[in-house]
Amino acid sequence: MTTQEKTYRVFVSVNEPSADAHCAEMVRALKVMHPNIECVGIGGPKLADAGCELLEETVGRAVMTHKAIAHAGHYYKLIKRIQRYLRENPVDLVVVCDSPALNFHIAKAAKRAGTRTLFFVAPQLWAWGGWRIGKLRRCCDKLCCLLPFEEQWFNERGVDTTFVGNPLLDRLPDDLTSYRKDYSGFDPRQARIALMPGSRLAEIESLWRPMQEIALRLKQEFPAVRFTAVATNDERRALLNQMEIPGFQCEYSIDSVTDTADAVDFSLVASGSATLEVASAGCPMVVMYQTSRFLWHLLGRWLVQSKFFTLVNLLADRALVPEFMPYFTSIDPIVAKVTEFLRNRATLDQLSNDLIDLVEPLTGKKAGEEVARIVVGMLG
User: Smallest Cα–Cα separation from 59: which of 37, 41, 43?
Assistant: First the structure.
């Protein structure tokens, strides 16, 4: 029997919308490269549409922070179910994507079942939690990272790592000239601003209201300004709509970070992968994140090791975009910074070009295809 004739089974573990999209592209590429690969696992609608059999829908669970205990109980049961499944239904490879809090457990279960594991998206141990590198080495046979500097960092620490590109950039052309914005005729009174509070429920709970409050303050200064809020899916869109504050109005865009950033003049963005998508559209931005003031001063500022928090600034190795992380309670500095940007066409032009210059070198690889090739190699 040839390699192409043999049937292989790959287990895929996904828990968030972004990972659902990343692994869906990987599965589609696998189906083309090796038709006899069967995929099964946990995830969301995009993974299912790509041809992966889902044991459980994990991406669509809408569990608010005040239900955290029930949330933990659900995932405890899910981990036990997957441990049992891997023992009773052997697979040839386990691919875990992002969500290290869950996927370290899944990878550990795979190793106990004698199955090799591939981590798609490196846990950000270089930023904090570096002591977990030994844990990663023990349960990871191959690591596929999305940021160029991660490849050397993890390899130097004994984890077999390959930079595969970033799936958020897969559909972009190699030449991003058309995404460079022109602010020569820009009128801040007519500005179009995107609000991107993130996909995770915790992000939405902590960022959506202050983003709306910032929008209302900007509306006082620039009465004709228009806002577009990005939601990852219809469920999140309904949640954002439900949480609207009095006086706030916006349009909604579903699962279209890059397209929305391309269509607006400026963005307010939750820290995370969306910042790279906004950068790929050459859209100037301010990045926000919220956390407990008490926990930040008690632990956070001592644990975080990186010079910057925002992905764009990490890649640039400089403060390319303003980051308010954490901003705690006052939105005044954020309003002031956005106002300053909107009043300065030259600054907007320069930042748009700087963002394109940063992202353009990353568009040569197609992450879904790169990871699929590595999976086929590990199976062979």
Answer: 43
pLDDT of 285-322, one tens digit each?
Answer: 999 986 555 444 444 443 445 677 788 998 898 999 99
Nearest to 56 by CA among 68, 69, 47, 67: 47
Q: At what angle do helices 68-88 and 100-112 cross, to 10 degrees?
A: 20
Answer yes or no: CATH 1.10.3860.10 is held by domain 177-362. Answer: no
Q: What is the DSSP letter of 52?
A: P
- Cα distances (angstroms) measured from residue 143 to each of 62, 140, 294: 29, 7, 34
Question: How much is the pLDDT for 60?
Answer: 64
264 three-state secondary structure? coil
Instruction: Establish whether domains 8-165+365-379 and 177-362 are of one fold.
Output: yes
16-68 pLDDT per residue, tens: 888 999 999 999 999 999 989 999 999 999 999 999 999 999 986 544 333 44
Would you kindly state where each structural domain of the chain is located, as residue ranges? 8-165+365-379, 177-362
Question: Is the CATH number 3.30.43.10 carried by domain 8-165+365-379?
Answer: no
Q: Residue 255: which pLDDT band, with cuts at 50, 70 and 90? A: confident
Buried b (16+ CB within 10 A) or exposed e, 60-90: eeeeeeeeeeeeeeebeebeeebbebbeeee
